[in-house]
């Protein structure tokens, strides 16, 4: 599995085309990386078919576990995913801002 650090995510944020946060809606509302789209892992059967095999998706969650699970399922469908190591906890721990809504 391809992984990047939060520092790499921060440096590349404006260039990343598809950034998915797989936490539940309430967790997402408490604070998320700007430019993410909230697609909860619990609903992956609904949104996975909408992803393109020709794109790369960067996936984040709270700590990296759920994003890893999402990427495993994506990989089984021929979709490329990049995991953000440490997730939103590492992002906030590094002092990067989160958006709340």
Automatic annotation (TrEMBL):
CDD domains: RHOD. Transmembrane segments: none annotated. Residues 18-100 form the Rhodanese domain. Coiled coil: none annotated. It holds the Pfam family Rhodanese. This is Rhodanese-like domain-containing protein. It comes from Furfurilactobacillus milii. The lineage of its organism: Bacteria, Bacillati, Bacillota, Bacilli, Lactobacillales.
